[in-house]
Amino acid sequence: MTDATSKIVFLGTHGQYNIGDELLLETFLLQLGDQASYVINTYDPEFTERQLGGRYRAEFIDTATDRRALISHLRRADVLVFGGGSIIKELYASIGRHRYATLLMILAIVTFTRLVARAPIGMFNIGVGPLPSRGGRMLAKSILRQVSLVTVRDSASFALCQRLGLDARVSESADAVFSMSADQLLGQGGAAAPARGDVLRIGLNLNHDIENPDNWEHFQESLATALTALADNRRIEIHGIPMQSRGKRNDDATMLEEFSQRIPNVSFIEHRPETTQDAARLIRSCDLIVSERLHAIVMASILGVPAFVLSYDVKVRGLAKALGLEEAMIDINGPINAPALASSLDQLLDDRVNAAKRLTARARVLAEQASDDFDRVRQWLREKAR
């Protein structure tokens, strides 16, 4: 915990209706405690405040429309914290923004905080990469060299920091959400085990923003063919579980709705989870999760639901490796063998009980890493936030 007078400016990608980002915020505030006061950036202050339910002393600022408020709070902050997420990265072309947009914004904030506000800076459980260009790597180095304490959430991020010559100031951890228990994810009233019927429930998540946008159509066709073949041999329901249902073009809910038209002979149930607890309960109700989104896979591992990974970028590949899911994964940026995909899903459903046990065992190891890392972070905050 931090001192009751401490003021922490906490930055992330909040208020964009992305359940994974909101889950990271909830995780960090739970772990850092309710003693300090927080200033939290968000694109929708009312939404983020409602998600947190008044459990913390926090002020919410919309940094998209009021940069002056951010500068004012940075001047008076005891520490600046970036909590989780892939923040040190170049943006994919499919996102529609300049590849360096995020890096340049973070560089400006970090440089101002260090030189003008003179507050210590921490980046915790973050993802580093992709950084395919020389310019991106130079910007990343300029950012991370100004940060007092950096922890990264996966081995790929740490290896990239090593290649950048930054490993001496960076330590490897795990995604912050692994520190959450199943009960914490499910929330009050969500702990009861779901009833299982004869129909196998497959939770599906899609995210349009992949490394190779030219492969999106091929991927969807292949996945539709595989799920249709699976439905020919088993009684299945596809449950669409969007991790982002609004806030951007081609959000998950839109992609899932469009995809459902490709599998007209397969039962498809649409969901629109609003909170992290909603998403966790939907995931727990499934027999298998097939997902692109990183935090849907993380939640499945904590909740004991077997997962098949649709790997769309480096961070998801790193998570699959950490969870031992390399054999339950395809790279959706290249050629896909639909019959082989159907066979892999079929085998995983047959072995789902053992697969769930293996997955939760790996998740417990990562939970210990994340918990140990938060001990270190809290100690750092006690020393800096005075």
TrEMBL record:
One of its GO terms (molecular function) is transferase activity. It comes from the Bacteria. PANTHER family: COLANIC ACID BIOSYNTHESIS PROTEIN WCAK. This is Polysaccharide pyruvyl transferase CsaB. It comes from Microbacterium endophyticum. Residues 18-313 form the Polysaccharide pyruvyl transferase domain. The keyword Transferase applies. Keywords: Transferase. It holds the Pfam family PS_pyruv_trans. The lineage of its organism: Bacteria, Bacillati, Actinomycetota, Actinomycetes, Micrococcales. The keyword Mitochondrion does not apply.
